[in-house]
Amino acid sequence: MRKGSIIQLTALSLVAGAICTAVALAIPWLPVSAGREAGRIHFVYWFTTIICMAVFSVVAAVLAFSVWKFRAGPDDDSDGPPTHGHTQLEIVWTAIPVALVTAISIVSAVVLAQNSRAGTDPLRIRVNAQQFAWSFTYPNGKTFGFLTLPKDRHVKLDITSNDVIHSFWVPQFSQKQDAVPGQHNTLIITPTRIGTYPVICTELCGLGHALMRSHVDVLSPTDYAAWVRKGSQASGPPGLAVFQQNGCGGCHTFKPASATGKVGPDLDNLAKYAQAANRGPEAKFVEESIVKPQAYLAPGYPDAMPHIFGTQIPTDKLQQLVQYLMKGS
Ligand code: CUA
After folding, report:
1. pTM (two decimals)
2. Is the N or C terminus of the chain more exposed, i.e. has fewer CB atoms within 10 Å?
3. For 184-219, how does the pLDDT look when each residue is reduced to its tens digit (9 = 90+)?
4. How many angstroms separate the alpha carbon of residue 71 from the centre of ligand 1?
5. Helices 3-26 and 36-69 sit at what angle, rounded to 10 degrees?
6. Strand order of the sheet with strand 166-170?
7. What is the mean pLDDT of the chain?
8. Per-residue buried b or exposed e for 199-232, using 16+ beta carbons within 10 Å of the residue's own CB
9. Sign of the four-CA dihedral 306, 310, 314, 317
């Protein structure tokens, strides 16, 4: 091969590489990393991407060079000269990908191993998914409809589901984990960045899937300790806690609970709905609508509400919820 060709090929590779680099850097492909695990996953992503960009640049340069230098003339119908394999070249183009893929495997295995380490004293939180809400239960037994985490501490989530398969995802933590009924999956998160991030269900789970969202607040260790102290005391009416624990706000709008769900009827208009339904006293109607939602469907709404609340909510909590919903209406 002539020296001039090598210089031309190198120049073409550099041009292709520069275009790749510009695209890689100009577009924010990944969300801000808010966890130690996410940082490692981003490292694997960029490690692999840089290798891909290098391979692409060489291949693109050889292709462009071949098209440019060895293009047949418009009237040239002759066959090309017979060629034979080039053993050395074949060894090289086999060995380099083997080395690169092996490197990616090793880096990925190391990151996977590191990301599954929760340390000796992780904060254990039980995560429960159901159509169409998340609930998070802390070691002190308190349950919330949103997640609150301290910065710089290992958190071990124990994720399960009440009904169908859901999937827990916080983009800024760069990890997803399925929530499967009858199964407990774990996910380790070590938050590194104070802020509020979305919790998203990323498995199609029914009519309210797109609205099955919550949020995670990452607090400083002192703020977190204060939150735990405050959270241990009852705040707001008891019905509010039942409302939040059962994820009612995932589907219903209800101003007293700052809920803005749009799948089911607006509970701020509960009295009007009860009147239109004409199914006896309002309290009875509200209770029936929770434990046996299929008995009466508000006009224009499908039978989308899970039929599990009759068995899921204890009687005393159910009464608190009914009272709470009626007073709000
Ligand atoms: Cu739960 Cu999608």
Report:
1. 0.76
2. N
3. 999 999 999 999 999 999 999 988 888 888 899 999
4. 54
5. 140
6. 147-150, 213-219, 195-201, 166-170, 175-179
7. 89
8. bbbbbebebbbebbbbebbbbeeeebeeebeeee
9. positive
Query: What amino acid occupies position 188?
Result: I
Q: Does the beta carbon of 212 lie inside 6 Å of ligand 1?
A: yes
Output the six-digit token pair for 101. 């893929």
Average pLDDT over residues 257-262: 79
At which residue do the structure tokens 């060489």 appear? 58
pLDDT tens, position by position, 265-296: 999 888 888 888 888 888 888 988 998 888 88
**Selection from 187, 185, 159 nearest residue 175 by Cα:** 187
Q: Kindly give the distance from the C-alpha atom of residue 165 to the centroid of ligand 1, in angstroms, as a whole number.
A: 7
Is the pLDDT score of 236 beyond 80?
no
Reading the block at residue 291, the tokens are 């434990």
For the chain, the C-alpha Rg in angstroms (whole number) is 29
Q: What tokens were used for 173?
A: 């933590």
179 pocket-lining for ligand 1 (C-beta < 6 Å) = no
